[in-house]
Fold:
Amino acid sequence: QVQLVDSGGGVVHTGGSLKLSCVASGSISDSYVLGWFRQAPGKEREFVAAISRSGTSMVGEENMKGRFLISKDVTWGTVYLQMNSLNPEDTAVYYCAATGRGIMGMTVRLDQYKYWGQGTQVTVSS
Structure:
């Protein structure tokens, strides 16, 4: 089992920045990828970014590329999501997630992320 604790959300004005953190514990060696998803009210959960143990990373959608950056500590198990130039469309619950055992490559597929954090609310005011 992998336990994930995500944090760092809050309320910011348009144009502001937030840095989210995710700390994984347990059998983290079973998870090759740690990532972030978000879910806005009335919308499906959306891939935001992910990073692998090897350092390969990606950011999902065009509206996030250039504004969001995922990073990790040298020791596997802690990842961050730096979010800049936030706008109200970024308002969502952001979830840290970890892939399950056997997933050995970068993935954006929801079903390949087995473990999830509790979510941290990001609210961007107009």
User: Anything to note?
Assistant: The first strand starts at residue 2 and ends at 7. The chain has a mean pLDDT of 96.
